[in-house]
Automatic annotation (TrEMBL):
<keyword id="KW-0408">Iron</keyword>
<dbReference type="InterPro" id="IPR029119">
    <property type="entry name" value="MutY_C"/>
</dbReference>
<dbReference type="InterPro" id="IPR003265">
    <property type="entry name" value="HhH-GPD_domain"/>
</dbReference>
<dbReference type="InterPro" id="IPR015797">
    <property type="entry name" value="NUDIX_hydrolase-like_dom_sf"/>
</dbReference>
<keyword id="KW-0326">Glycosidase</keyword>
<dbReference type="GO" id="GO:0046872">
    <property type="term" value="F:metal ion binding"/>
</dbReference>
<dbReference type="GO" id="GO:0006284">
    <property type="term" value="P:base-excision repair"/>
</dbReference>
<keyword id="KW-0227">DNA damage</keyword>
<dbReference type="GO" id="GO:0032357">
    <property type="term" value="F:oxidized purine DNA binding"/>
</dbReference>
<comment type="function">
    <text>Adenine glycosylase active on G-A mispairs. MutY also corrects error-prone DNA synthesis past GO lesions which are due to the oxidatively damaged form of guanine: 7,8-dihydro-8-oxoguanine (8-oxo-dGTP).</text>
</comment>
<dbReference type="GO" id="GO:0035485">
    <property type="term" value="F:adenine/guanine mispair binding"/>
</dbReference>
<dbReference type="GO" id="GO:0006298">
    <property type="term" value="P:mismatch repair"/>
</dbReference>
<keyword id="KW-0378">Hydrolase</keyword>
<dbReference type="InterPro" id="IPR000445">
    <property type="entry name" value="HhH_motif"/>
</dbReference>
<keyword id="KW-0479">Metal-binding</keyword>
<keyword id="KW-0411">Iron-sulfur</keyword>
<dbReference type="Pfam" id="PF00730">
    <property type="entry name" value="HhH-GPD"/>
</dbReference>
């Protein structure tokens, strides 16, 4: 088909040299695809290098502690990816003797692997004719064919998947899938695509109608919830501090944070003092405290915006279950906490 031939020709001349393109090993392809979910190549590449250096095989990853995996993942966000990565590595190593499934259907059964990742692994590693559909592919297809169906609707996901499957190069699905993703990432970009040198501009509906900025169509998500986080950074007489492990299924599961007090609104120093004095660690203990950042740090997650303040609490006592502050860097923490630790200069 002309579409796939044009795309493959473009790819052969324009593809970036990336380490996961030098192999068909499903472990490395899987690792790269999980890292690159919700992450651009420039940000994900150093993490891929760190992971392959630390865990050169699925067995090495499976034998790691979850805390070690989370620490290495720190800064990438969407930490459920790391937890699922570790769980799947253990399953493949222990239940499948290190051998990845080689079909789309069986890959889908693995934790953390959906349609896109299963299609990518199946096509790249096992030459299966399974079309990938990610954000880049949605953009290319919606613009070229002038499709208005929202990409985050059930109808849209089905429509684009079917279209992608009809376009894939059945003789070389691996290169075709990588080509269309690369084309969306570097040529048919979200903002300011360089349409003047695009090999598809003569047949692109979005270009002919000047609708590049309108496509793809996406249903607006619900407004993000606003939350107010107050972290208590305890420091005792021996220069120890306290980190707590987040439990449950909420954000940052199994990561560490300073003791948290969540409030319904932003509180000034005097208003917050009454709450702080009630903290269990401060009963019958003298302390001095100060606000580290006057203006709340806004940390934006997909469904919530965290307005965050850090309160330094110096306690005239020795805190129970505390850690030496020089060890704080060994714990896996959310990037919000990590940035504070760096700026506060824990030694």
């Amino acid at each position: 088909m002309i579409f796939s031939k044009t795309l493959n020709n473009w790819y052969s001349n324009n593809k970036r040299e990336l380490p996961w393109r030098q192999t068909k090993d499903p472990y490395y392809i899987w690792l790269s695809e999980i890292i690159l979910q919700q992450t651009q190549v420039a940000q994900g590449l150093p993490y891929y290098t760190k992971f392959t250096d630390e865990f050169p095989s699925v067995f090495h990853l499976a034998n790691a502690e979850e805390s070690q995996v989370l620490k290495l993942w720190q800064g990438l966000g969407y930490y459920s990816r790391a937890r699922n990565l570790h769980a799947t590595a253990k399953y493949i190593a222990n239940e499948l003797n290190g051998v990845f499934p080689n079909t789309y259907k069986d890959l889908l059964k693995l934790k953390g692997i959906g349609d896109y990742t299963a299609s990518a692994i199946a096509s790249i590693c096992f030459n299966r004719v399974e079309a990938v559909v990610d954000g880049n592919v949605y953009r290319v297809l919606s613009r070229y064919f002038g499709i208005d169906t929202p990409i985050n609707s059930s109808k849209g996901m089905k429509e684009f998947k079917q279209l992608a499957q009809t376009l894939i190069d059945k003789n070389n699905p691996a290169d075709y899938n990588q080509a269309i993703m690369e084309f969306g990432a570097t040529q048919c970009k979200p903002q300011s695509p360089n349409c003047s040198i695009c090999p598809f501009n003569s047949g692109c509906i979005a270009f002919s109608e000047n609708r590049m900025g309108e496509l793809p169509v996406k249903i607006k998500s619900a407004k993000a919830k606003k939350k107010h986080f107050n972290f208590l950074v305890f420091i005792d007489n021996e220069e120890n501090t306290i980190l707590e492990k987040r439990e449950g299924k909420g954000i940052w599961q199994n990561l560490y944070q300073f003791p948290l007090i969540e409030t319904t609104k932003n509180l000034e120093f005097n208003d917050f003092e009454t709450i702080v004095k009630k903290h269990p660690l401060l009963h019958e203990t003298s302390f001095e405290w100060s606000l580290y950042n006057e203006d709340a740090i806004v940390h934006k997650l997909s469904h919530q915006h965290l307005y965050t303040k850090f309160w330094i609490v110096k306690v005239n006592a020795i805190l129970p279950e505390s850690i030496p502050k020089e060890e704080i860097h060994t714990y896996a923490v959310p990037i919000l906490i990590g940035n504070f630790i760096e700026s506060f200069n824990f030694i």
